[in-house]
Amino acid sequence: MDKIYFTTPIYYINAEPHLGHTYTTVLADTLTRYYRSAGYEVYFLTGTDEHGDKIAQAAKEKGIEPKAYADRISAIFRSTWDACGIAYDHFIRTTDSYHQTIVRDFLQQIYDSGEIYFGEYGGYYCFGCERFYTEKELVGGKCPDHQTEPEYISEKNYFFRMSKYQQSLIDHIQSHPDFIRPERYRTEVLAFLREPLEDLCISRPKSRLQWGIPLPFDADYVTYVWFDALINYLSALELHGSEFRENFWPKANHLIAKDILKPHAIYWPTMLMAAGLPLYEHLNVHGYWVMDSGKMSKSLGNVVRPLEMKDKFGMDAFRYFLLREMSFGQDAKFSLEALVTRINADLANNLGNLVSRVLAMQQKYFDGVVQPLGPTWAPEDEELRNKFVSAEKELARHMAELQFHRALESVWGAIDHANRYVVHTSPFTLFKDADKRPRVGEVLHHLLEAIRTASRLLAPFLPDTVKELRSLLALNEADAAYRAPWGRCFAPGHKVDGPKVLFPRIEAPANE
Ligand code: MSP
Question: Is the CB of 12 under 6 A from ligand 1?
Answer without folding.
Answer: yes
